[in-house]
Write a structure and sequence with these properties.
Helix content: 10-25%
CATH class: Mainly Beta
Strand content: 35-45%
Number of domains: 1
CATH architecture: Roll
Distance between the termini: 22 Å
């Protein structure tokens, strides 16, 4: 799931496919989607993984990238995870989210192992 901010300041949350690769989160979307329009005006976002037993909440900044900027090996990793690779040149946008702050909530150790990592010294 990704949470973005609308131009009027209201949050927008949407489930989506994406992949963690080389310490960043990559996803694609059509340029007409609400999340793409929100990110155009404000690149700050939150990514939440789909595994609630090992919950991760990542605060970061989404950078619009080109297909040529996708790291080598990412299409193969996507195909392994989802059964398909990002459709290069399909008219959508690709984003790279670099973490600034990460929270981990392991369900079975919630009382002892909640963790926070900060990657941006301004946080």
């Amino acid at each position: 799931m990704i949470v973005t901010v609308r131009p009027d300041g209201r949050p927008h949350a949407m489930g989506m496919h994406g992949i963690w690769f080389n310490d960043a989160y990559y996803f694609g979307t059509d340029e007409t989607t609400r999340k793409a329009r929100n990110l155009e005006g404000n690149p700050h976002c939150i990514v939440i993984n789909e595994n609630l037993e090992e919950l991760l909440i990542v605060e970061g900044t989404a950078e619009l990238i080109t297909w040529a900027q996708l790291p080598e090996g990412l299409p193969a990793a996507s195909k392994k995870k989802y059964g398909w690779a990002p459709p290069q040149g399909a008219g959508g946008r690709m984003y790279k989210v670099v973490p600034r702050k990460v929270f981990a909530f392991p369900e079975k150790q919630i009382a002892t192992a909640v963790t926070r990592w900060i990657f941006d010294e301004n946080e």
